[in-house]
Amino acid sequence: MSYPSVDQLQKVLTEKVFHYAKDSKKAAGRALGTLVEIITFYSLKAWGLERNVAIEKPLPEFGNDDITHNVEYSLHPSTPLVTVDFNRDNLPITARKIAKQPEFAALSIPADSIKTNALLSNDLVLRNSCSVCDCGETFLNAYLDNLDKKTGRYSVATLRRRPFAIFECKRVGVEEGMRKGPQTIEKAKQGAYVARTVSALQKIRLTDGSMGGLIQKRDGSFWHGDYYKLMAEIIASGDPELLSRFILTVGVVSNHGNWFTLENHNKELKVLAQSYDWLLFLTDAGIAQFIDELLLHPAAKLGAARKAFLASYTGKKGVNQFTKVQMSLAADTALQTYFKSKASTIEGWFNIVVPAGKSLTVLKDELDTLKGKNWQEIHA
Predict the structure, then answer these.
(1) Axis crossing angle, helix 329-341 with helix 303-312, rounded to the nearest 10
(2) What pLDDT is attached to residue 27?
(3) In what order do the strands lie in the sheet with 278-282?
(4) What's the whole-model pTM score?
(5) CB-count exposure of residue 267 (10 Å: 0-12, 13-18, 19+)
(6) In 268-297, which positions are buried (b, 16+ CB within 10 angstroms) versus exposed (e)?
(7) Residue range 12-55, pLDDT digits in tens
(8) Which pLDDT band holds residue 182 (cuts at 50, 70, 90)?
(9) Domain ranges for the chain
(10) How many Cβ atoms from other residues are within 10 Å of residue 78's Cβ?
């Protein structure tokens, strides 16, 4: 089923799913934002980056550690530490239980650094990218590998605090009945500010309107040139000076109302496009297909995900099991299967705003290249 705009889709959700809410339109709008985050996160999982992902970690500005910004998804150099088998009778699998594993005794983890998170709860709600504890320049994350009727297995990895890439999701535009969307330009400016301040590679607007790049080496000298050529050279290089402080910034933007298209940019999209290294436009058709197959005309393979979504939006607090952070285990399994089986279709949901002429394959290759660097040597 097709919808002329995201606003029309929001209307359908308002009537069919969020009719119970006091402000059903606002509830549907929030859910749309969550679904954009879910699409982004499960795309990262499908691209083989799950063990690099941290969620809502504070990221310091380049050269200014006093100011940090929480980013939706950051991708970090990751090193596997240990795999642990457990009995289902031992649920929940909490961060404290994980930190007490004998394999971590040598790390002397301070008790006050251990999180209160649970990787897997008694009622089988999974915590994505479950943070276990902070260890200075690194932190530990736990990931569920599998769960059977009686036993399960999880893995723990150490992630370097400084990421090699970040992903942020933004919904911008004007709601139906409004002439303009002042709140969305502020969101765009916030995202643009973060995108332009976290990496050592700085963007500079040149007099001819093109985008130049500038990065300073430790001896005080500058390396400069066309921004995207410079970025490609840094990603391909093995130079620790350049890579250790470089962060690839990716924005995922979706329409809010039929306000702009890939060809017809409005102010918000222009602000974001000149700030992120990559800006992906999640199309109305893509969001509509996902919502249609998840909720309105549910696909059989998404049955568990639909159940988790509907159970999360009942008007009661504390029951949400369909977010980027917490997800019903059955829903997680269903979503992973869906995103892997429809990989080429889902990649077609994204249009590339910048860099012009590039494909999603190039972005995935850049992420794989950065993931595969010898980060221990780079940060030595």
Answers:
(1) 130
(2) 81
(3) 53-61, 64-75, 165-173, 248-256, 278-282, 350-354
(4) 0.94
(5) middle
(6) bbebbbebbbbbbbbbbebbbbbbbbbbbe
(7) 888 888 877 778 877 888 888 899 999 999 999 999 999 999 99
(8) very low
(9) 6-50+165-199+247-286+349-379, 78-160
(10) 21
In the structure encoding, which two tokens stand for residue 323, read together? 């977010």
| DSSP states of 179-229 | S--HHHHHHHHHHHHHHHHSSSSEEEE-TTS-EEEEEE-TTS-EEEEEHHH
Q: What angle do CA 141, 249, 134 make, to 5 degrees?
A: 25
pLDDT score, position 5: 67
Structure tokens at 304: 């568990």
Q: What is the mean pLDDT of residues 228-234?
A: 97
Q: pLDDT tens digits for 329-341?
A: 999 999 999 999 9
Please tell me the distance from the alpha carbon of residue 35 to that of residue 107, in angstroms, as a whole number.
38
pLDDT at 23: 80
Tokens of 16: 């069919």
Residue pair 87/151 in contact (Cβ under 8 Å)? The answer is yes
DSSP conformation class of 322: B
- What tokens were used for 179? 């002439």
pLDDT-derived band at 314 (thresholds 50, 70, 90) equals: confident
Task: Look at residue 142 and give its three-state secondary structure.
Answer: strand
